[in-house]
Recover the amino acids of this structure.
């Protein structure tokens, strides 16, 4: 044992915790402190002092040697181990910190690449759609969309007028491309009152969904069977989708 006195035990426990924070394992910290107190010692002496089994103690001492913290010498044909002074550990810690600091630009570059990857979120049901529509209101970005007005109004029902009120309150304008139906024509007529411009494409384009582009995000709503919604947040991918919708917009009625 390192010591039987309570105060000394507490001191060693504190020092052991500090060494573990530096990067040593529990056994490495115990063996280092025992060897430091002995000055130098055989494996048996250090094992007894640290309360670490002899075979394990030998392996630990070898691991400390590989870290540059311990060393060996022969005295009267017996192998002894000693450890570096505490300030050597401090210098090693400082060197590690400097190495980490020098790698910071590369680490930040890797982090930046991950941060710029597209973020994808999936939702199911009407509540998921409503959550996305509220996000559109919160983001306060103008909208470019292509939609099936009949499906959208049927599924969202009374919620849709509420969404329009919120959108108007935030002065969010909309350009939307709709399949040619009576409801689509109605939306087109109401457009000027609701900050909305509608362009019509032939009803032969058969689809039952909505794509909404806002800011650096795009939302996809599928109305067939299960209501599934997807939000993708990506400047690059959103620009691709926006350009596609802009092309359709320029060629629509």
């Amino acid at each position: 044992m390192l010591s039987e006195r309570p105060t000394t035990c507490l001191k060693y426990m504190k020092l052991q915790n500090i060494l573990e924070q530096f990067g040593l394992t529990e056994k490495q910290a115990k063996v280092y402190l025992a060897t430091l107190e002995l000055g130098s010692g055989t494996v048996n002496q250090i094992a007894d002092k640290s309360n670490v089994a002899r075979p394990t103690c030998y392996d630990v001492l070898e691991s400390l040697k590989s870290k540059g913290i311990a060393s060996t010498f022969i005295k009267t044909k017996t192998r002894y181990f000693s450890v570096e002074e505490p300030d050597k550990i401090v210098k090693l810690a400082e060197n590690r910190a400097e190495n980490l600091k020098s790698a910071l630009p590369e680490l930040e570059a890797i982090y930046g690449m991950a941060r710029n990857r597209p973020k994808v979120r999936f939702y199911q049901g009407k509540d998921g759609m409503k959550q996305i529509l509220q996000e559109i209101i919160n983001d306060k970005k103008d909208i470019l969309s292509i939609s099936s007005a009949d499906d959208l109004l049927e599924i969202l029902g009374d919620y849709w007028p509420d969404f329009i009120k919120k959108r108007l309150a935030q002065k969010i304008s909309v350009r939307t491309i709709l399949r040619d139906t009576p409801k689509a024509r109605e939306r087109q007529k109401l457009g000027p009152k609701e900050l909305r411009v509608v362009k019509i494409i032939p009803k032969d384009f058969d689809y039952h969904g909505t794509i909404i582009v806002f800011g650096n995000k795009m939302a996809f709503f599928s109305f067939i069977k299960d209501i599934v919604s997807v939000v993708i947040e990506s400047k690059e991918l959103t620009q691709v989708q926006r350009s596609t919708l802009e092309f359709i917009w320029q060629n629509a009625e």
Observations:
- The chain is about 55% helix and 20% strand.
